[in-house]
Write the structure tokens for this entry.
Amino acid sequence: MAEVKNYHIKIEGMTCAACSAASERALTKTKGVISASVNLALGSAEVTAEAAIPPETLLNAVSAVGYKASFATGEDLSIEETHQFSKAEIIIGLIFGF
């Protein structure tokens, strides 16, 4: 089995479910991509691909459908973790009336 790598991609310009579906479809159709999941709310994608494909291929696939793509930095990841934690707090607050 080929070696695989995981990528976290920041995607800018998506405004609706069709946008995220187009980005996800573009990524999953890229040769060497094993799986791709796009999150509209966070403006990001998680991609698992064969290590042999050039990483820029993933960015080009998203750009080809009209969105700006870049590899997420450590700062981007910490912002998303904070955002996800905040959503959890809101849900718990709604359930328990905090």
